[in-house]
Amino acid sequence: MNEAITLLVPIDSHQPIKLLQITDTHLGAQAAETLLGLNTDYSLEQVVDLVRRERPHADLLLATGDISSCGAGQSYHRYRQLTKGIADQTLWLPGNHDTVAAMREAAKDGNEMAGCATIGNWHIIMLNSKTPGKVGGSLSDKELAKLRVGLQQSREGYALVCLHHHPVSIGCDWLDEQKVSNAETLFSVLDEFTHVRGLLWGHVHQQIDQQRNGVKLMATPSTCIQFAADSADFKLDRLSPGYRWLDLQENGDIETGVSRVSGVVFDIDYDDSSGY
């Protein structure tokens, strides 16, 4: 398996590099399995249809964890099929519900687990914040070393760093217990490099757009259920599934937005407070 993939720069170098983030799909071992009443294959299909209408020519798809609800190999094979063709290349990283070995097996003939990509003057680094046996996240010494090396090697351009768990508090007490436990160490590494432009994650099933020291901090809706913002305990939001698009500019700027499915009724048990 390659350690990195290099994508072709668009013919017109003044055109932005087009990325998609699709996160927290929670696909079951079998097709049409449900999460709190929602068929997660169906909800992903609706998001992918939206992507095809709105952003049909992406360079790279980022899957930022919890691709599977149970870590089953079939989940990853089905994810590949459901997202086929929406981007030239795809990168995956694991979430707390994923199984890394199953991800690697499903991607053995592809680049999904490459860990990083260089596109034009941008370097995308995918970090593994999964902590075995725990819901919350942390970054191992190996991952932090990988980050530092990747940033050292990309000083001549710009960097976007991706992980699953959130590194900052978001105002949801129950979720903030699960954030990256050594986030201060993560930020101490990022602060050494002035070319880092974005930090992107999943896990929180909601949109977040903040800034820290000139770096965009971004989280993205799930393609299935949504978590209510500013909630002390587990609570669902009635917002629709969605995805994030990112345009990486030649000058280091990131233009980004979130788009959600509309006109589709999803069968979700909003009164279930048992969690996920």
UniProtKB/TrEMBL annotation:
Sorted UniProt keywords: Hydrolase, Iron, Metal-binding
Domain Calcineurin-like phosphoesterase stretches: 18-206
Superkingdom of source: Bacteria
Pfam families: Metallophos
InterPro entries: Calcineurin-like_PHP, CNP_phosphodiesterase-III, GpdQ/CpdA-like, Metallo-depent_PP-like
Entry GO MF terms: cyclic-nucleotide phosphodiesterase activity; metal ion binding
Family: Belongs to the cyclic nucleotide phosphodiesterase class-III family.
UniProt-recorded name of the protein: Cyclic AMP phosphodiesterase
UniProt organism field: marine gamma proteobacterium HTCC2143
